[in-house]
Amino acid sequence: MWPPDRPDLKMRLVWATVLLFVAKAVLVLVPYFFKWATDALAGDATTRPPLPDFLLVPVMLVIAYNALRIIQLGFNQLRDALFARVGQHAVRQLAYRTFVHMHELSLRFHLERRTGGLSRIIERGTKGIETIVRYTMLAMAPTVLEFALTAGIFAFAYGWTYVAVIAVTVWLYVWFTVKVSDWRIGIRREMNDSDTEANTKAIDSLLNYETVKYFNNEKMEAERFDRSMARYEKAATMTWVSIGWLNFGQGVIFGGGMTAIMVLSAREVMAGTQTVGDFVFVNAMLMQLAQPLNFIGMIYREIRQGLTDIEKMFDLLAVRREVFDRPDAVPLEVTSGRVEFRDVRFAYDPERPILKGVSFEVPAGKTVAIVGPSGAGKSTISRLLFRFYDVQSGNILIDGQEIGAVTQDSLRAAIGMVPQDTVLFNDTIAYNIRYGRVDAAPEEVRQAADLAQIGAFIQRLPDGYDTTVGERGLKLSGGEKQRVAIARTILKAPPILILDEATSALDSHTEREIQSALDLVSKGRTTIVIAHRLSTIVSADEIIVLKDGQIAERGRHAALLAERGLYASMWNRQREASEAEERLRIAREEDEEGVIVRRRTPEVAPGE
Ligand SMILES: Nc1ncnc2c1ncn2[C@@H]1O[C@H](COP(=O)(O)OP(=O)(O)OP(=O)(O)O)[C@@H](O)[C@H]1O
């Protein structure tokens, strides 16, 4: 609200505050004009109002009374307009900080988060802040001021009995409001929690659209969603019902106080100690007091609600970052791009070690392949090099610099990653490729696509580079998505490259295309290939066979085959599989060429 680098916003805040007090001062004058007009019309003024002569005519008093009301309204609107930017700026700052913080949090946090619930918490939090900023600033202080002024006027003009009645009424009113509002907070929390839960379920279910369909579970999903909505419905209904009770209770208390004061004044008018104008004045003043009182009730309620709404967002802001730059972190200086793992130990969960002392080196510009059974910890190696997690012990070095001692920014700028499962942004192909280097020219984007062997495919699309790829890129095939990922890594042009090969089998033609694209990208770069298909790494400078978090074998392809160990057996298994696939392919081609294979298959019904 008081941003150090924005004097314009500070000025606005000052003016809004000034206007606010001026408007309140004008407001207190309004009932006086009402009283003077009434007395002038009834012809029973006891004292002469402190006004210039020309205003003393009843018509002029009526006009002045209404003019003041309009002026006061104008001041209020002007104040709101001035304040709007200050308040919105504060809201934006907070939303921005939350967003940045979300990106600073670790992969661990993001793997565990629930997108739907998270977005709801942030949405509610920023709204809550807006409410709090608005109400505390613009309402609390001036309302208290208005209340003090009104009480002062009553005491001065009509005596302490009036003040006592008002004081009791206000005390009751505030006490009741606080009690009921505090009770309502529980309901509000329940409402928020069920809202978050419903949204989490809805988003998770929609993200898994295909799986839901594969298993015909639409009905179950709808019921699950409806169950959480039912909880929300109950809590939301309670909120509305309880607010009805709150308003009614407040009305009863205020009405009681008002009756007492008006009876007091009516008796004095009958006794001749007050004029009709006084009676009207007392009424107008009380009506005017109703507004700030009501406001105090509302402010208290809104602020409590706002605080409830933002508590989850502040919890989120309080989540500690797992990976952060050391205070003395310096930018990584890549000279040749040599990568070294020294006795690296790591576990996602302390009780289950994943890497148990892994050491290897990738000389500058060379390619090292990491292979091994599923779950051996291959992808974990790439996550550690990218510093998604910090190692428990051991060191990871790039050109002799410990990756934990350099800035994350510079580290990640030096490494290119083609992940196992490429997920794209739901935007155009051009946007997704340019993501590798956002200032790349269209020509560079096209070149990168050509190098990644996807340029021709894109050009054949009706919308070309402007084709949108759908949610998470699902409108593209697995192979196409991977080539988009390769194209954007080409644009990034990093000195070090991690290629996490896709597990899903691509057809051999696509695989060859992708392989040649990858060979092109990795030329002259330090490359770590996490391989599932051994055929792609035959020419690697070193192959590391990982098993149960340890290096079981290492060496070049031919040497490892000669060892007849784990690598050799993996190789033989894959070769048998690919030979079987090859035989199937030949059979299919013969079929297409007219050798009618189908007639010989047993599925043909007898007699056909
Ligand atoms: N975020 C995580 N939290 C806890 N455990 C994890 C996490 N990520 C991976 N693991 C576990 O760590 C082990 C190694 O995972 P990793 O992804 O490195 O295996 P991988 O060798 O790449 O396997 P694959 O060949 O199937 O991709 C697995 O058993 C996995 O269940």
UniProtKB/TrEMBL annotation:
Membrane topology field: Multi-pass membrane protein
Keywords: ATP-binding, Membrane, Nucleotide-binding, Transmembrane, Transmembrane helix
Single Gene Ontology MF annotation: ATP binding
Iron-sulfur found in the keyword field: no
Domain ABC transmembrane type-1: start-end pairs: 14-305
A Pfam family that the UniProt record links to this protein: ABC_tran
Signal peptide: none
Primary localization: membrane
Subcellular location: Cell membrane
Keyword Transmembrane helix on entry: yes
Record domain ABC transporter: where: 339-573
Transmembrane portions of the chain: 12-34, 54-75, 132-154, 160-178, 237-264
Identification of the protein by name: ABC transporter ATP-binding protein/permease
Organism: Mesorhizobium marinum
